[in-house]
Amino acid sequence: MGERLTYRLFEERDLPSLLRLWEQAGWGVLTAEQWREWYVETPHGACLVTVAVDEAGEVVAQEMFMPSVMCVDGGEVRALRFSAPILRQELRGGSLRRNEHPMIGLYKAAATEAKRRGFSIVYSLPEYGWLSIFRLAPRFGVSNFAQANYDCVALPFEASRASDAYGVAGGVVAQPVAEFGEEYDALWSAAKESFPIHCGVVRRRDWLRFRNSGRIAVEVRDASDGSLVGYTATKRQTGLLADILARDPRDVARVLAATLRWLGDERGRSVPEAITHLKVMRTPVLAPSLEVFDGEMVDYKFAFTCNTFDAALSLDRIAPERWFVMPGD
């Protein structure tokens, strides 16, 4: 079927067909209103969307590229995060070694337009199994992707109470985020310099509101002066730590400990009863702080990959080890 597909940018007339694809592919029912809220009205403009269309004009595959702003060595560039492709059943499987996977066709169509629009970086946090597709992408005319994978650590709420790590949270108070306001812009500026953050999605208030509004967002403040020390955002359905930031690397453990205490106290109320652990992507940036806790290794691998559209921006400058990256980015 791949030989009969046309890969191109999404057009407004494709929307009914695309919404049918979501439902047929098992992604659930998506309304036109939700589509616009999630993928058109983002802080940095509408997503770049590519589709594969069959000979009957029906959308049979879709790839979403969400715009963001990236910090790279103190400067800012435009970036795109792409998510897992949505494919009709007959397009799944097959041998990528012999045939171009639809994901590659969708990506190529996006890359041409992304360069034209001035985007510099593309990145993704796909399922681990998708990394094999990125490794073979150069066979089909796509430049090499940088790749990394990270372990998953689960921090039990109750275990943290009984451990020495719990004492790390002294002097700070955790509470729900009422509003991502101006303080959060200042927090980002402080963190960018103190870590330092060589590469990372810019975490200003408009982005935080957009990405974390549906998550369990907790802010951690200094108990003596009320200043913002950091925040976390946790996925409500899974207990995955989608985002974290602290004003200084030395505050990360305090932010984590205070969050664990708050999540444990709120379990069964604002935190679902089924959530008993905070699951964390163990990146090099977070690893030293995670050592403080009595965490449990989870049989799961996070994946990360990135590439550049800008000839002036080398892949070495955006290598994974230079990133401050979280699953919610």
Overview of this structure, please?
The chain is an alpha+beta fold and about 325 residues long. Helices cover about 25% and strands about 30% of the residues. It is built from nine helices and 15 strands. Strands 1, 2, 3, 4, 5, 6, 7, 9, 13, 14 and 15 form an eleven-stranded mixed sheet that branches. A four-stranded antiparallel sheet has the order 8-10-11-12, sandwiched between helices.
Topology:
Elements: E1 6-9, H1 15-24, H2 32-39, E2 48-53, E3 59-72, E4 75-82, E5 86-87, H3 102-117, E6 121-124, H4 131-136, E7 146-156, H5 157-162, E8 172-176, H6 182-194, E9 199-201, H7 205-212, E10 216-222, E11 228-234, E12 241-246, H8 252-266, E13 277-282, H9 287-290, E14 296-308, E15 323-324
Parallel strand pairs: 4-6, 9-15
Antiparallel strand pairs: 1-2, 2-3, 3-4, 3-5, 3-9, 6-14, 7-13, 7-14, 8-10, 10-11, 11-12
Which short descriptors sum up this protein?
9 helices; 15 strands; 26% helix
- Can you give the helix content as a percent range? 25-40%
**Assembly level:** single chain
Provide the β-strand percentage band.
25-35%
**How many E-type strands?**
15
Distance between the termini: 34 Å
Order of helices and strands: EHHEEEEHEHEHEHEHEEEHEHEE
Please tell me what the overall shape is: globular
Radius of gyration: 21 Å
Mean pLDDT: 90
- Return the structural class: alpha+beta
| Biggest sheet details | 11 strands, mixed
Query: Helical segment tally?
Result: 9
Low-pLDDT sequence parts:
none
